[in-house]
Design brief:
Radius of gyration: 28 Å
GO molecular function: DNA binding; sigma factor activity
Number of domains: 2
Strand order of the largest sheet: 1-2
Low-confidence stretches: 82-89, 94-116, 210-258
Protein name: RNA polymerase sigma factor (Sigma-70 family)
Keywords: Sigma factor, Transcription, Transcription regulation
Order of helices and strands: HHHHHHHHHHHEE
Distance between the termini: 69 Å
Strand content: 5-15%
Helix content: 55-70%
Organism: Halosaccharopolyspora lacisalsi
Shape: elongated
Number of strands: 2
Structural class: mainly alpha
Mean pLDDT: 70
Largest sheet: 2 strands, antiparallel
Family: Belongs to the sigma-70 factor family. ECF subfamily.
């Protein structure tokens, strides 16, 4: 890089923490946030020199570009989560990302312990609401620039931010699990695994996952081929007649022989 690019890289590094913070609030994954910021840098470097010279506020320009990149990611991620089974949780950040911009969650969360709990609520917003809320409330991005990212009017962008803010402020914190319950579940899980009790493991992970044995219809239960072997349980051969002219096998608990 020449001296001009070196100066541009130094200025980019000054904005990088705020860009990472914005991207993480939008994508909920540190790796995706890093990718978005790196892509913004690549787009900046691909600009012609004349275009670079016309950028009056590099921080605002980069925030808008990161918003574009994250919006595409959010829309594709929203489609993927439609088929996801179970509660969705964001990935935590190891350590804090330094930056001058205030965290948009400060608007609705006044206790550090609730900050991570608020992230799933943030990511239940539509991509448009999330982007408008995060960029405006957290990074002071004008609604006119947000509208350019979303491809809508400034009034619509303002409405997206308002709806996102309202959803965040009306959502209550998740219920706290009592400490005895937190300690009981891991203990039961480890005991079930140690005993190789598959049904008990299933009950710990999901109380309705394993039906009581008495509810099964006798004579109709059939184990999948190799099922006991996959569970790590010993099997042995029992006389079982013939199937297609060959000795049949019945698998049952035993000494590890078939």
């Amino acid at each position: 890089m020449d001296e001009g690019d070196d100066a541009l890289a130094a200025e980019f590094d000054r904005h990088r923490p705020n860009l990472l913070r914005a991207a993480y609030r939008l994508t909920a994954r540190p790796a995706d946030a890093e990718d978005a910021v790196q892509e913004a840098w690549r787009r900046l470097m691909r600009l012609a020199e004349a275009h670079k010279a016309r950028i009056g506020d590099l921080g605002a320009w980069l925030t808008t570009v990161v918003g574009h990149i994250c919006l595409d990611h959010m829309r594709s991620a929203a489609v993927r989560r439609e088929s996801y089974v179970g509660p969705w949780l964001p990935e935590p950040v190891v350590g804090e990302v330094d930056g001058q911009a205030r965290d948009p969650l400060d608007v609705v969360v006044d206790h550090e312990d609730l900050r991570f709990a608020a992230l799933p609520v943030l990511h239940e917003l539509t991509p448009e609401q999330r982007l408008a809320f995060v960029l405006h409330d957290g990074f002071d991005t004008p609604f006119a620039e947000i509208a350019d990212v979303l491809g809508c009017t400034a009034a619509t962008a303002r409405q997206h931010a308002s709806r996102g803010r309202r959803a965040m402020t009306t959502a209550g914190p998740p219920p706290r699990i009592p400490m005895p319950e937190q300690q009981r579940v891991p203990g039961e899980f480890l005991a079930a695994v140690s005993a190789r009790d598959v049904a008990a493991v299933a009950r710990v992970l999901h109380p309705r996952a394993a039906r009581p044995r008495r509810q099964r219809r006798q004579g109709t239960h059939r184990a999948a081929p190799g099922g006991r072997r996959r569970q790590g349980l010993p099997v042995r051969r029992r006389p079982g007649g013939e199937v297609r002219g060959r000795p049949a096998q019945r698998h049952a608990p035993g000494t590890g022989q078939r």
